[in-house]
Structure formats: C-alpha cells, structure tokens
Description:
seven-stranded mixed sheet
Amino acid sequence: VQLQASGGGLVQPGRSLRLSCAASGFTLDTYSVGWFRQAPGKEREGVACIRDSDDREYYVDSVKGRFTISRDNAKNTMYLQMSSLKLDDTAVYYCNAYVPPDNYWGQGTLVTVSS
C-alpha cells in the first residue's frame, strides 16, 4: 500500500490550490480516506475525510465551506480542493487511508500561504 501526495506550494491568501494523493496497492473507494495537516509547532489535525461506510464527507470546522475532499475511482486518486486560503492553512498536508488494521500515510506536501 502506498500513497503519493503532491500539489503543495506557495500561494497567496484568498487563492486556491488542489492537492492530489495517488494510491497504489489498494482501491481508494473501499476504505475511509482523508487529509490531515501539521502546522509548525502544532499537532497533526484531521482536515477532511470520506467515510467508507456511507461515503459521507466530514470537515474540521476551520475549513468548512472552503475545502472539498473528493476521489476519482478511475484514477485511484483522492483530492483536496482548497479555496479562500488563509495564513493559518499553512502546514504540511498528509493524505491518509485506513486499511484495517493499519493506517497508511502519504509523505506530506507543504502548503505555504503567504502574501
């Protein structure tokens, strides 16, 4: 099982960015998947996820209405569309898949929001 995250970069406040996470060794639509982030000096937090049991999306309050998680089953890839980015969104973003009994992580992609 492997997850390969990409799409991070430097972006100005208010702009958009899309992160991608390509999966191999398993099919994304079979398991719960999500995005986490870790800002400098802070603990890793869950940002968004899609639960496998009902395909519902969940978001942390700070990104609701701005971020959208999705997956393309044909490409076996998940995405995090981030809009109206704020300075506080600066962090390393990690994709995650819960493939019982293990959690799998992508390598992280840095998003820097700065003017």
